[in-house]
Amino acid sequence: LISYFLAVIALIITLYPFLYVFSASISDPIEVQRGNVIILPRGFTLQAYINVLAEGQVIRSFFNSVWYTVVGTITAVSLITLTAYPLSRKEFHLRNFFQIYILIPMFFSGGLIPSFLVVNGLGLYNTRWAVILTLCLGSYHVILSRTYLQTIPDELVESARLDGCSEFRIFLRIIVPLATPITAVITVYNAIGYWNNYLQPFIYLKSEELQPLTIYLNKILSKATLETAKM
Question: What is the pLDDT of residues 139-158, one digit of tens each?
Fold first, then answer.
């Protein structure tokens, strides 16, 4: 009973901001400014949605954000799992070298200018892949996934080899199904990271046709701030 009670309290606390934002979006702006909207909407109106949908850039930016989130998450999870699996195997003799190689970027970074020069030199500037590839292989996620894969018993892999399975088949038929919990974790991490990403699109995407929703919302917020300051 205590667990269910705490879970319900946590659910209410978590859902309230979303409910408030939705209620405010369909309420009269005057009522929202007066603070009369707490849970239920006051003065029902859809004018806010009409104004938003009238801007073609909103739909395009939203589609771009969805594209970056879906494609980026799939790419990131695939590369992270494929990198973590050999690092978790004791028979891989170069694993210590590559682990150190992956750990270095967690403590030292080349900086913004070298990263921009690399992206530009590879011809990725102002392309969707500039956003995808610069975030797809985080060192922390690789180490997290490798640590979990090390808990899988070696006997499962050895028995599969005795049955004639190749390394790729072992990875697909044994490792991937058993790694579902850690795969779910890094999927959530990367999905949130790509959806909320602002810095990479701001630096690498010049065309408004490619910019995600975070860039568009920042422009709207900056414009509203300037108009408020003038008033």
Answer: 899 999 999 999 988 888 88
pLDDT for 87-115, tens place per residue?
998 888 888 888 888 888 888 877 888 89
Q: Are 116 and 181 in contact (CB under 8 A)?
A: no
Q: What angle do CA 4, 6, 12 make, to 5 degrees?
A: 100
Are 127 and 206 a contacting pair, CB within 8 Å? no
Structure tokens at 74: 């799939």
- C-alpha dihedral sign at 129, 190, 69, 72: positive
C-alpha 76/C-alpha 96 separation (Å) is 22
Distance CA 102, CA 115 (A): 16
**CA–CA dist 231, 89 (Å, integer):** 64
